[in-house]
TrEMBL record:
May regulate the synthesis and function of lysosomes and of highly specialized organelles, such as melanosomes and platelet dense granules. It comes from Odobenus rosmarus divergens (Pacific walrus). This is Hermansky-Pudlak syndrome 6 protein homolog. Its main location: membrane. Residues 1-385 form the BLOC-2 complex member HPS6 N-terminal domain. Keywords: Cytoplasm, Endoplasmic reticulum, Endosome, Membrane, Microsome. The gene is HPS6. InterPro entries: BLOC-2_complex_Hps6_subunit, HPS6_C, HPS6_N.
């Protein structure tokens, strides 16, 4: 059913102070400049130079004082005037061409008071040609005098500077003006247009033709400037943060951006209009285009009528995906997605001004009621243009929406095949929650009881709504997004993490991983214990939600990861060293059907799957996960990898770290390392650790049999000393320490169990030494019988015992 665009009268201006003067200025001067305050209560009208007094009028809706200013001949009126988005009180800033700046405020005394006056160009050698007041800043483009020539000749093409100063409230009636920072120097003349997040520097009629096809977009929240050429479809981004002292010479900036200086016709723009979506521009053919903050340009649509010359008035605005354009006395509404003309209205006057919508979070009660449309101001009154549902369209009641939503929720959790319907929920006492909520909405619960029940929730929602308003306004974007992500993760953790909720949680972790992990830290109450491990005081229900879900053995639909895999992936990106302690902590949690003891893949395997395929994983993380898993196969796999890398000490420590309740696993690790001990001598330095790892029930015979199995084959007869450059074989001296370890519990009583066991048990005291006499040399002739004991030509020394 087609919706209808409507114009609704909000006020005939009689509610504004000085209503007669307000109507007079709106009806009599087509060139009057109109601004609206952030809260929507104040209207500012600034007339061009030469207009009769008053040149400045500030009218207020409801209680409050108006402000009228007039300047005599020879004292030009301000170049421009802006309302400041100060929540405590209404304030405005006036800027003259000479650089004189005045800040006025209301609410600190009777009427409007001058809060501060300053000079933007204190040297007197410059004049301001354009000014804008984005949130918390004052930005102006000034033309500086070139040497001693003064202003007599034509000004140089690049004699302008773009400067910025912070402008913030201070106390009851004070203002803080920061120091001047130069954003651009040696640049052409630029017009300045500010949206809530960005500042647009657009060419003017006096801009040098060679660069009049270029515009700049400064995003203070992102600390960068975008140089764009809409007619070429090119854009380049550069860093620009005045807080760090960044500044750019415009000529140097363009020389470093290829393609932007191609000979092009100047931009022929009739009207510029900043919007939350970007910068709208209307050319003389009636085509409306949108320049977005990233520099891209797209056509929005074409009006039924094109503007006739510069004299015709035009105004552009957007609401609910709709472009509104007032061209003369015609209002056209176009769909911003397709460019289709939705509606065209003929107005009763051609002097119509589109007002910017109030800043989020600063609307009063009346503005909240008219949210969702654009406001048109003329001498006839203040109107709202928006979409309204046609008559006869039935809107479901709040109670119906409750039961329909409950049906969808319970159907997802139900195992039965029958379809639930709202009528069944209304009369079935099984589902009490929707009935309770419906009774609250119907007013069956007293307001005090309802307020007590929902006080905490309302406080959270209000804080969240204020936070979103600050984000839309561009205040402290980084901190705001972090807080918003923490709120969202905490909310999702209180829901059933399936379907859309799990997909949304994945999106938050991908966009803001640091903030999302901070929320998880608080939910799980994770703290390091000082020994490289983590501890948690979270209740089992929270861990059940973390460890549940689809196991990593199956392909996740659309790349959506379960919560445990999502946390592992996030840790890999932020703090990889904490991944093994986190998995080890998770393995200590558990319950029937979930956690470390549940069915499906063990947690260390799920964590390994997040690291990627084998061969592409981080070897250090894989080793830590395998060693901390407590699974025999995983630990043996890790020790095998350590052996391959010849990290002997770590392999031995991995075996010693196992508790005595795992004797079989320790025995397997010992046998694996004993085989390496038999093959080469690179483990000799770690023999004490190997002895500690030796199973206490291993007999010496079993030890020698294990060694014999892994001893290398001897291809040549043994020699008493190894050849130079070859590795020495296993010696009895090295073997003795292991053999002693196998009998460390004392010599058993009874018969000898092994042929080798007696060598381990000596009495500890050597036999007595026989008496020794003088040493003589035996001659072969004296003892012919000894010749058989000594080779020819050699003598043997023996002891003569008489």
């Amino acid at each position: 059913m087609k919706r209808m665009g409507t114009l609704r009268l909000l006020s005939d201006l009689s509610h504004f102070s000085g209503a007669a003067r307000l109507r007079e200025l709106l009806a009599g001067d087509p060139a009057v400049r109109v601004r609206c305050s952030p809260d929507g209560r104040h209207l500012l009208l600034l007339r061009p130079p030469g207009a009769p007094s008053p040149q400045l009028l500030v009218a207020v809706r409801g209680p409050g004082a108006e402000l009228e200013r007039a300047w005599p001949a020879g004292h030009p009126p301000p170049l421009d005037a802006f309302f400041l988005p100060w929540p405590a009180r209404p304030a405005l800033v006036l800027v003259w061409e000479s650089g004189l700046t005045e800040v006025w405020g209301a609410g600190v005394g009777p009427g409007w008071q001058l809060l501060r006056s300053t000079e933007l160009c204190p040297g007197g050698g410059a004049r301001v040609v354009a000014v804008a007041a984005p949130r918390g800043r004052l930005v102006w483009c000034e033309e500086r005098q070139d040497g001693a020539e003064g202003w007599l000749g034509p000004p140089p093409a690049f004699s302008h500077y773009v400067c910025v100063r912070t402008l913030e409230p201070s106390g009851e009636a004070g203002t803080n003006l920061g120091p001047t920072h130069i954003l651009l120097h040696h640049c052409p003349s630029f017009g300045l247009l500010a949206s809530r997040k960005d500042l647009f520097l657009v060419p003017t009629a006096t801009t040098w033709p060679g660069v009049s096809h270029i515009l700049l977009i400064w995003s203070p929240g992102k600390a960068k400037v975008m140089v764009a050429a809409p007619c070429l479809g090119l854009s380049h981004s550069k860093s620009l943060n005045p807080g760090r002292g960044d500044t750019w010479d415009f000529r140097t900036l363009l020389r470093g951006l290829p393609g932007l200086l191609c000979p092009m016709k100047p931009l022929t723009v009739h009207t510029w209009a900043p919007t939350p979506q970007g910068l709208l521009l209307l050319d003389f053919r009636g085509t409306v285009s949108l320049v977005q903050s990233h520099g891209g340009t797209r056509a929005v649509g074409t009006l039924q009528e094109a503007p006739v010359g510069l004299a015709g008035s035009a105004a552009l605005g957007t609401f609910h995906g709709t472009l509104a354009c007032v061209l003369g006395s015609t209002l056209e509404l176009l769909d911003m997605g397709s460019g289709q003309l939705l509606e065209r209205k003929v107005l009763s006057t051609d002097r119509v001004h589109l007002l910017a919508p109030p800043a989020p979070g600063m609307e009063d009660k009346e503005e909240l009621e008219t949210r969702g449309g654009l406001r048109l101001l003329s001498a006839l009154g203040l109107f709202r243009v928006g979409w309204e549902a046609p008559q006869g369209l039935e809107v479901p009641s709040a109670e119906d929406l409750v039961f329909e939503e409950a049906c969808e929720y319970y159907q997802r959790r139900s195992l039965r095949g029958a379809q639930l319907n709202p009528e069944e929920l209304r009369h079935n006492s099984t589902f009490r929650a929707p009935q309770a909520l419906a009774s609250i909405l119907q007013g069956h619960v007293s307001p005090s009881t309802l307020l007590t029940t929902l006080r905490a929730e309302l406080r959270d929602y209000r804080a969240l709504d204020q936070l979103k308003a600050h984000l839309v306004a561009g205040d402290e974007e980084e901190a705001g997004w972090t807080e918003l992500a923490e709120h969202e993760v905490a909310r999702l953790l209180r829901t059933e993490l399936v379907g859309d909720q799990l997909a949304q949680l994945n999106t938050v972790f991908q966009a803001l991983p640091t903030a999302a992990w901070g929320a998880i830290l608080r939910a799980l109450q994770l703290q390091p214990d000082g020994n490289g491990r983590l501890r948690s005081h979270a209740p089992p229900d929270v861990w059940k939600k973390v460890l549940g879900g689809t196991s990593a053995g199956k392909e996740s639909p659309n790349g959506i990861l379960p919560l445990f895999e999502l946390l592992c992936q996030c840790l890999c990106r932020l703090e990889p060293r904490w991944l093994p302690p986190f998995v080890e902590l998770a393995q200590q949690q558990g319950g029937p059907g979930w956690g470390a003891g549940g069915p499906g893949l063990p947690l260390y395997r799920r964590a390994l799957a997040v690291l990627g395929e084998e061969g592409t994983r981080s070897e250090a993380l894989e080793l830590e996960l395998l060693l901390g898993s407590g699974r025999p196969k995983a630990v043996l796999q890790a020790v095998g990898q350590l052996v391959q890398k010849e990290q002997w000490e770590r392999a031995l420590e991995a075996g010693l770290a196992l508790s005595p309740s795992s004797p079989l696993l320790r025995s397997e690790i010992f046998k694996l390392l004993l085989a390496e001990f038999a093959r080469h001598r690179r483990l000799d330095a770690y023999l004490p650790l190997l002895c500690r790892l030796c199973p206490p029930d291993l007999a010496p015979a079993e030890l020698l049999l294990l060694l014999r199995t892994h001893l290398p084959d001897e291809l040549e007869p043994p020699t008493p000393f190894p050849e130079p450059g070859t590795e020495p074989p296993l010696s009895v001296g090295l073997l003795r320490a292991l053999l002693e370890q196998t009998g460390a519990k004392g010599r058993p009583s009874g018969p000898v169990l092994s042929l080798y066991e007696d060598i381990l048990w000596d009495p500890g005291t050597p036999p007595p030494t026989p008496p020794r006499g003088p040493v003589t040399t035996l001659q072969a002739s004296d003892h012919a019988g000894l010749e058989a004991w000594a080779p020819s030509g050699q003598g043997l020394y023996v002891t003569d015992t008489g």
